[in-house]
């Protein structure tokens, strides 16, 4: 395996581990992302030196995240897999999964905490306000994310390239 490919696979796996995802899942995703053709689980296991059972479990997880898909191959009954290669789709699917697992439960908990705090005279006004601020911020981020999904891909790409310059387009703001 070329060094650049091996380095990418290992680092993508490490990044997955930092996100709380099994490192093997990240490595298999990276391997499939770089693969030019759909490959079998056996080929993945042999190429990455992983147990076949680990590869099978990781594939199930990646299918659940919709980061890979099955590809039927003519004259071959074995399952073949390929990764989504559109970077924007990959990012959106990862963000969707993280939102469902992290942001949605956090927002629900914050709403419950704010509701409970509002009715509790033992909670200081400053504490109540901090809980409300955290909930409002998290809700705003959640709403922003949902809005960004409806922006067409070419406009999202342009927004990304513009970066902080986009603030200069907002009336009353100064580009900084």
Protein architecture, described:
The structure is a single chain. This protein is mainly alpha-helical and 176 residues long. The chain has two domains: 3-83, Arc Repressor Mutant, subunit A; 87-169, no CATH class. The chain is built from seven helices and three strands; from the N terminus they run H-H-E-H-H-E-E-H-H-H. A three-stranded antiparallel β-sheet has the order 1-3-2. Helix 2 (23-34) packs across helix 4, helix 3 (41-48) crosses helix 4 (52-64) and helix 5 runs antiparallel to helix 6 (125-149). The protein is extended, with a radius of gyration of 22 Å. It starts with a helix and ends in a 14-residue tail after the last helix. The model has no long low-confidence stretch (mean pLDDT 91).
Quick summary of this structure?
This protein has 7 helices and 3 strands; from the N terminus they run H-H-E-H-H-E-E-H-H-H.
What is the alpha-carbon Rg in Å?
22 Å
Rounded mean pLDDT score = 91
Binned, the helix content reads 55-70%
- What structural class results from the helix and strand content? mainly alpha
Question: Tally of extended strands?
Answer: 3
Q: How are strands sequenced across the largest beta sheet?
A: 1-3-2
What share of the residues does DSSP label as strand, in percent? Answer: 5-15%
**N-to-C span:** 45 Å
Number of domain units: 2
């Amino acid at each position: 395996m070329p060094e650049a490919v091996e380095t990418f696979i290992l680092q993508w796996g490490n990044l997955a581990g930092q996100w709380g995802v099994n490192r093997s899942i990240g490595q298999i995703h990276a391997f499939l992302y770089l693969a030019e053709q759909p490959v079998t689980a056996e080929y993945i296991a042999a190429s990455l030196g992983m147990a076949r059972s680990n590869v099978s479990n990781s594939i199930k997880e990646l299918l659940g995240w919709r980061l890979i898909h099955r590809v039927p191959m003519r004259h071959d009954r074995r399952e073949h897999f390929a990764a989504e290669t559109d970077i924007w789709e990959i990012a959106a699917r990862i963000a969707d999964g993280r939102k469902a697992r992290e942001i949605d439960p956090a927002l629900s908990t914050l709403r419950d905490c704010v509701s409970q705090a509002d009715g509790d005279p033992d909670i200081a006004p400053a504490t109540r306000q901090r809980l409300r601020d955290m909930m409002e911020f998290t809700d705003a981020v959640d709403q922003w994310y949902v809005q960004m999904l409806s922006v067409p891909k070419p406009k999202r790409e342009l927004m990304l390239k513009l970066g902080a310059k986009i603030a200069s387009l907002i009336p009353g703001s100064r580009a900084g």
